[in-house]
Every structure is written in structure tokens, then in C-alpha cells.
Amino acid sequence: MISFFEICLEISGAVCVFLLSQLYVIKMCVYTECPVVKLWASAFGGEMKSISAKYSGSQLLQKKYKELEKSVRVEEIDGMKVVKNLSKKMEEMFRKKKEAIRRLVEAAEEAHLQHEENPELQYEYFNAVLINEVDEEGNNVELGGEFVLEPNEHFNNLSVNLSLSVVQVPTNMYNKDPAIVNGVYWSEALNKVFVDNFEKDPSLIWQYFGSAKGFFRQYPGVKWHPDEHGVIAFDCRNRKWYIQAATSPKDVVILVDVSGSMKGLRLTIARQTVSSILDTLGDDDFFNIIAYNQEIHYVEPCLNGTLVRADRNNKAHFREHLDKLFAKGIGLLGDALTEAFTILNDFNQTGHGSVCSQAIMLVTDGATQMYDDVFAKFNWPDRKVRIFPYLIGRESAFADNMKWMACANKGYFSQISTLADVQENVMRYLHVMSRPKVIDHEHDTVWTEAYMDSTGSIIKGPSLMTTVAMPVFSTKNETVSGILLGVVGTDIPLQELMKIIPKHLLGIHGYAFAITNNGYILTHPDLRPLYQKGQKRRKPNYSSVDLSEVEWEDKDDFLRNAMVNRKTGTFSMEVKKTVDKGVRREEENDSYSYCISKTVDCHGKFFFRGNVSVEAGLHDLEQPDVALADEWTYCNTDEYNEHRSLSQIQAIKLYLTGRKPLIKCDRELIQEVLFDAVVTAPLEAYWTGLALNKSENSDKGVEIAYLGTRTGLSRTNLFVVQEDLSNQDFLTAEDKEGVFNADHFPLWYKRAAEQVPGTFVYSIPFGGNENKSVVLASTAIQLLDDRKSPIVASVGIQMNLNFFQRKFWTASRQCAALDGKCTISCDNEDIKCYLIDNNGFILVTEDYSQTGEFFGEVEAAVMTKLLLIGSFKRINLYDYQALCREYAGSSDSGHCLSHVSSTPKLFTSLTSKSCVFLTMLVPCDTEYPAFVSERTIKETTGNIDCEGCVRSFVIQQIPSSNLFMVVVDNKCDCSSTLPVSMDPIEIMYILVKLKFQKDRKRPESCHPFHPEENAMECGGAAGLSAPLTGALLSLLATLFTR
What is the pLDDT of residue 532? Predict the structure, then answer.
């Protein structure tokens, strides 16, 4: 048997030291290299570079660009200028949408002004659910009727009607309620405006009017489908765009009675009432919930005496605590009111809240007195805090007292007897809160955070949106009462914002992003709103991801706060990003220019401009092997209907050759893409020649050659027929990371740019199916020899994994013996040979099942030593949009509980022989490691003490690549060493997040109250007893004279 380090003795006769132990005689090398391993590495590296360079055509392309070096000019990109230009384009887009909804507001208010309410009105309208439905006899159902629907590409090929809108009514409301019928009747006037808006701005998608009565008018008309229970839960009044447009920002304290009389159904109704109130709060609002009996109980004890932002995370956290409420004791409402007023006053003085409207929501089954002493002390005479009492249950013994509280404090009283009453009664407070805005007649425009369109079956597939919305008011004489008619709005797909980003100017690693006034992401390439790509299931907190949770290297929130406060400027910071399903790490010093922000990497600071004739450029651009980035905008084909069917290449041709082309294009980008088309054209003939040469690639190991340029142009060539490709998805729409996208360059392009010029980066794609047994090899093409030269292109090949591995094993059988008989090779049982990349992932090993695995999980002892001696380094990264598996019960009896770990694990199923555990994915925050090799270390040896047995290894870099050969002594058992895992670890700090209030920019408009409000419209003043009515009128008279 030949020991591992006799390899070294055979080649060099190196001096070795022999150490004796009770169990083993161990030979250890005391020098720094093993020539035979170096020989294997050199042989393999040389052959792979030869194959990669030959079939990719990298040297030919580098030569073509070098020939034009003197005829092009290199420019440094002004990041601030790019950001300002991008901001102007976005502002122009938003201005057009705002003008469209302004026309809808004017039309709606005029139509309502001309309409006389008629409680007997009968009107047949197109109900979104009932259109084209027939009864058993084949006749159209009532409120249905024949409604022409045709597929339309602009609306994701949904069948729509571009002439008419449809009306959706929530399932819990009556389709023919007089209030709804009257509202539907006068709002028919919006149909003409919908159509006119779409003709003026063909980039518009959905336009709509959400009525305060609950119905929703949508254009273009489309059929809605109920869920499996026959229900459509959508209520426009619960949508953030509606709430934000209808009311001003507010601070709210919710008081919940948990005294003994609230037991049973009353407490259930109370919980649902509080939950519905939370539904009406948005990201500009702040709140807390207090339960009271003879004591004050903060629902979240760690948040006593303060308010938190009403984002989705915080509301979900408080909802979990509602289920823990139980009723006992007596209710001391006076103490609870005092606490609520104190919180609102103190928090308002900090300047952290809305600094606008304030309200106390009282959820109780009665009040034994009016508590006028509390109101006199804290709220009168200004009455800046509105009181909204919700009487739970059918009894009315204390109704007068609660009505009086509402009327005396500019609020509204509601009685909720059943769970079915909750929704409508809760919504009424919004009309009261909107009164000042109505009386001021301020049509404030609001923009929502990013959200996933969820209006039933309207959108096929997930689509992130933002909405611009504006309130609609009554202009009739009763306006002093403050009548909100509803809200109009239109959606803007965030993909449209991404299209106007000049990706070619941002660099390979550069990207743009925008945030809301609250610091939440509107658009960012790292925003992950779905549980899994390709699914429609949204994460519950996807719309409130703070910028600091993605740009987490910005530890002091410098960038975030500057953007929130609308500052402009530039700064740099070290950033660490992951690519390739999050397992590979990028590290660079990025320059940030903010306003709407972009990052520019080192390569992105420089851009070069070339020039060719239009004729030559178009000729080479129209070749069949050429494609342009699908999500980049070379020409705007959405503005006019006649251009929507054009490809980007067809649009460019029309723009350059048309006599009077209406199409708008980026002339600068087109000039550069024509230049790239001409420079890269020789590769088509080169690749074709290789493919036709039968003596080349006889074993079909090389399958595809490809290239991409800085302008989003790509070329591909197949060396095997399509059906024989090992990876059918590569360079297709399914391969999101492998193609030019709206927010990133292809992964193979980015990774090539990180390497030393002239070297190839090799990798196995992650996340693929079993049939994706391929290795990708790519290299960057630089214009100049300077390290900071612009990366003008990247070329590469796709190889069959078996072909690649055969080359490795062949190289590892070589030696320097003159007779050609090698006593040492990777075939020996005494050693194990691995080929790993610069992130520690295995490309070649004897055990094929370990291909693609992390080296630290296969050879834990060796990886630990490599980290210790600095050959690799570990970098901790954070994911604040991660998913964890959480135990959710068992399909068997309770004894299964003992098998469940209390710590949620990621991406693992929980099973045992006796039962199957039910788990669910839940959002969480995680810390996880990434590993990267130290570039300056080319080779090293090491020894590992494995319980008295010394195991030795050699690691040698493969020349001109990102790969390393690792040869390990196989005679020691080091299995006791804990694996070096890449598994994430969950980070728990929910309460820190809840309490910590980050900087935000308050909405500029605030309408907390108005002196002309009619405070007597408070939900039940007409029903007050005579003494209480007199007391109220006396009080109001006193307050108004002060």
C-alpha cells in the first residue's frame, strides 16, 4: 500500500519526518508543494483553457475589439447625472398617470352632482361575476347579459372589453341595494373617460373607481371568478390605495374590554372588530392595542407607552396576541381612556408618529358613565382626538353613554351584534376621518408601496404593482358634512419602471432601486415577494421590506435616510452580495448615487462608445443567432398599438429606416448595439466552421457557445442538436439568471467579470433538475489592458459534465516517469481527489452523487483546516426575506411532539417512522455563511490530527481558472469532525424591530380636523335620550364659544 505522501517522495525525494504513535506510523511532508499534484493541475488546466478558448472564440473576439481600440472613446460615467435623468423619466411616467386619474375625479364628481338619488331606481349593470352567465334554460342571468370579451396582449392576454367597465360587489353585500344601484348608475359616466385615458396613454393598464358604498368599477371589463366556496372576498375599501387616499395619516389606540361580561361570543366579535380595524391602517399610520379590565394590559407587553408603525409585520404580530385575550374581572374604562390619551399626547410630542390625526377606538359591551371628566382633562375644547365606540352585542342599555362619547369627540358610534356586522360598521369611521379632507376639497395624490395584484383572477401570474390614487368628493350643498364618494386609481407595473432604467450605463453589477417615503422598497432586484419563484403565493410581509433589510451593509442607514429625506449625493461602501441561488458571493466597492438610487461597480464606471454605419449594423443585427435583452428598452413599443407586436430588433429597424417613425428609441444605446453587432459578427462564421468540422468535438462534449455584450446583445451557437442538450433551459426564458434581465446581467457574465482577465470561470448551475448535468465556462473580454478597462463582452461554452470529468481523470493519471508507468494517480484507493471551485463547491469527485455539494459537508476536517490556514475565508451574510419551516402540528397523536426540534429548520421536512409532521413555510430572518478562496494562495499542504491519526492533503490551483484540485490522504477516519455547513441560522429579534422606529418622510398633506365639521353626524345622535341630547348640545355650544 502506498501512503499519500510517497507521491512527493517519488517525484522529488523530499525530506520527510517519521512520527511514531501507538496505532500509526505517519509520514508528513515538511515542504510547501507536491510536484505531481501540480503536474495534474497544470495538465488539466491547460487542456480546459484550450478547449474553452477554442470553442468560445474568446481570442478572436478579443482581437476584434482590440483592432478597434483606437477608434472608440472611453468615458467615465457620471452616476449623479444618470440618476437625475432616470428620476426625470420616472416623474414623467407618473405625471401621465396622475393626469389620467385627475380626469376620472373630475368626471365622477360632475356625474354625481348631476344625479338625483332615487331609492326606487332599477338599473341593469354588468356585474363582473355574472356577465355571460346563463341559467338552466340558457337565458342570461340578471345583472349578467352578453358581454364581449377578447384576448388582449397588453393585459397579459386576458379576455377584456376595451369599451366598457364592469362592476364588482363584495359577496356580503346585496347587488341591488339602492345605494349601490344609484352609485353604479351615475358612475357609468366614467366609461367614456376610461376609454379616452387609454387612447391618450396606451401604457395604462387597469383603471378603477372604488366606491365608498363598497362596489368596485374596473376598466377594461373582465370577468371575475369566485373561489371554491363561491366567495369573492375583495373589498376595495380595505385596499391600501383606498385608505391612504381617503384619510390622512393617523395615530390610533385601540381599547378592548376584557372584563367578565365580554366572555364567549362577545369577545370573539371584539377580536374580529380589532382585526378589521387593523386592516384599515396603512404604513403611514401608528397604533397600539390595550386590553383593560380592572387593570391595563398592553397586548404586546414590551411595547407599553408607545405606538408602532402599522405595517404588515407589526399588525400580524399584534393579531397573534389577540387570541391570547380572555375575559375576567370588572372593566375600569376611565383608567383605559386616561392611558390612551397619555400615550397619544406623549408619542405626538416625540415627532415619531403621524403628527396628524388621532383617534381612540373603544371596543366594549357598555359604559356605565360618559367619562366627561376624562375628556375635559385631555381632549376638550380642541377635540383633536376622535372617539369611535363600538358597542358589542345586542343589548342597548349603555348605548346612550357610548353615543354621547362619539358625538362629544367628533367620532362615530356603531353597534355590532354579529360577526357579519363587523366589516361594514368598522368601515364607517373612515368616512368621519375623511371629512376634513372633503371639506378642504384637497385631492391629494397618493402612491402605494409595491404590492402583488390580487383582484381575484384578474392577473395571470404574479405581478408587482404600485397604485396612484386620488379621492372623489361630493360637490353638492351637503359637502359641509364631508361626503366621500370613493377613490379612483390606476396601476403601474413595476416592470415598466425597470424598463426605463439604462442598464447598459450601470455596469455589470450595477442596479437601480426606488423606495417609498417610509423606506420600504418600491423596486429592487433583491426584493423576493413570493414563497417560491413561479408560484402565486405571496409572503405576508413582502410589501413592507425596508431598504435596510436588503442593503444591509448600510449599517448606519446613511443611504436609506438620505433617500427618505429626498437628498441627493454620492458615497461608496463595501458590499457583499450573493448570486446563483444565494450560494456564491460577490464583494465589491460600490458607488451609490441617490435620489432614486443606483449602484455602479468598478467596471461600470467606464463606458466606451464606438460607431459603425447603419447599414452594416442592421445587417449584422438581423442575423438569426442574434438576440437582444428581452426586458431592456431599446425602443418604446408600448406607446402605440401598431408597435406592440414588434420585436426590439424590428423596432430598431423601423426607427432607423422609417421616413416618419413615431416610435421613440434610445439613440445612444442603439448606436452601441449596432457597433457590438458588427464586432461580434465574425464569431458566427467561426462557430459554424467548428460545427461543420466532423473531426472537431467528435464526442459532443461541448454543446453550446455563447456571448453577451454590455449592450444586452447575445449570440449563441449549438454544436449538438437541440434534443441532445444536457440543459435544455440554459439561455431560455426559464433560465432567469442566465439571460439579460431588467435588473441584472447574466450570471455567467458577472462571474467572468470578477476573474483576472484571460482566465475562465467554471461552474455547475444550481437549482436545476437532474438532467442539467453541465459545466459552464466563461471569460470576460476587455477593451484595454488596464485593470479598470470596461468589460465589453463575455463569451463561454456549455460542456457536458461527463465530458468535463473525463478530462480531469485523464489529467490525474499523468506523471514524470520516463517509462510512462505511473505508480500514483487519483485511481489509487489511498487518496481521494476532488475538483472544487473558488466557492468550495465540488465539480469532480469519485462519488458522482457528491457533485455540486459543498466541500465542507463532504470533507469537513480538510475544509476546517483550509479556513484555519487562510486558503478559504468564511463571510457571514444576512437574509431578511428568508423562509423557515415551522412546526404546525401532526397527523398522528400527541406523542409525535417529542420528535420535533424547537428550532425551526430551513428547507427540511420533519418526519419520523411513527408519524408525519405538518410544517409550513414562514418568513424569517437568517444569517448564513458564504465561502471564497484567497486569490493570493495558489497551493498549500496541510496535516489534520484525527484522534491520533494524522491526515494530510494538498490543494493546488488549476491555472487560468477559478478551480482547485484537492488531494486527500484516505487512510484516516475524520468523520467525527463536524461538517462545515452552509445552512442558515434563524435570527430572532422581532421585538427589536417593532420598537425601533426608522426615519420616514411624512406625507406632506395632513387634514386632522375642520371647524365646519358637523359633529352631530356621529352615528346615533338622533337616537339619544332627551337629557343626553340636551347635555350634548350644551357642551357643543360651550366648546364653540371658547
Answer: 61
Residue 261 and residue 166 in contact, taking contact as beta carbons nearer than 8 Å = no
CA atoms within 13 A on the CB side of 790: 26
- Tell whether the model's pLDDT for residue 76 goes beyond 50: yes
- Type of residue at 329: G
With cell 420598537, the residue in question is 995
467 in Cβ contact with 491 (< 8 Å)? yes
Closest among 752, 983, 1000 to 879, alpha carbons compared: 983
Distance CA(51)–CA(60), nearest Å, equals: 14
- Between strands 464-473 and 484-493, the pairing is antiparallel
Cα 268 from Cα 323, distance rounded (Å): 9
- Other residues' Cβ atoms within 10 Å of the Cβ of residue 543: 23
Listed in sequence order, the residues at least 6 apart from 234 whose beta carbon sits closer than 8 Å to its beta carbon are: 168, 170, 216, 454, 455, 456
Question: What would the grid cell of residue 938 be?
Answer: 495558489
Q: Of the ranges 424-428, 456-460, 901-905, which one carries the lowest mean pLDDT score? A: 901-905
| Residue in this structure with the C-alpha cell 387612447, named with its chain if needed | 199
CA pair distance 702, 690, nearest whole angstrom = 11
DSSP codes, 710-774:
TTSEEEEEESS-GGG-S-TTTTSTT-GGGS--SS---HHHHHHHHSPTT-BEEEPPSS--TT--E
Q: Which residues pair with 257 in a beta bridge?
A: 292
Question: Please, are residues 284 and 249 in contact by the beta-carbon 8 Å criterion?
Answer: yes
Distance CA 653, CA 670 (A): 10
Residue 130 C-beta-side C-alpha neighbours within 13 Å: 18
Cell of 184: 353604479
Give me the residue label for grid cell 510536484: 35
Q: Quick count: other Cβ atoms within 10 Å of Cβ 336?
A: 26
Return the residue matching grid coordinates 372604488.
210
577, 580, 584, 586 alpha-carbon torsion, rounded to 10°: -30
Q: State which amino acid sits at residue 38.
A: K
Element (H, E) at 940: strand 939-946
Tell me the C-alpha to C-alpha distance, in Å, between residue 94 and each of 637, 672, 819: 18, 29, 78
The pLDDT tens digits of the residues spanning 759-791 come to 999 999 875 444 458 999 999 998 776 656 778
In 229-332, which ranges are continuous DSSP H helix?
240-246, 265-279, 312-322
Q: Are 1008 and 1019 in contact (CB under 8 A)?
A: no
As a whole number of angstroms, the distance between CA 400 and CA 370 comes to: 9
Cα separation, 225 vs 452, in Å, equals 18
Closest CA to 961 of 190, 83, 307, 45: 45
Answer yes or no: are the C-beta atoms of 603 and 634 closer than 8 Å: no
Helix axes 35-56, 801-811, angle to 10 degrees: 140
Enter the C-alpha cell of residue 769: 433538475
Q: What is the DSSP letter of 387?
A: E
Reduced to 3 states (helix: H, G, I; strand: E, B; else coil), residue 92 is helix
Per the DSSP assignment, residues forming a β-bridge with 579 are 584
C-alpha cell at 38: 501540480
Calculate Rg over the CA atoms of the chain: 34
For residue 586 the three cell numbers come to: 460577490
pLDDT digits (tens, 9 = 90+) for 629-646: 988 889 988 777 778 788
Indicate the pLDDT class of residue 101, thresholds 50, 70 and 90.
very high
Contacts of 888 (CB under 8 A, 6+ apart): 918, 919, 920
Cis peptide leading into residue 220 (ω within 30°): yes
In this structure, are residues 592 and 611 in contact, taking their beta carbons and an 8 Å threshold?
no
Place of cell 489534520: 944
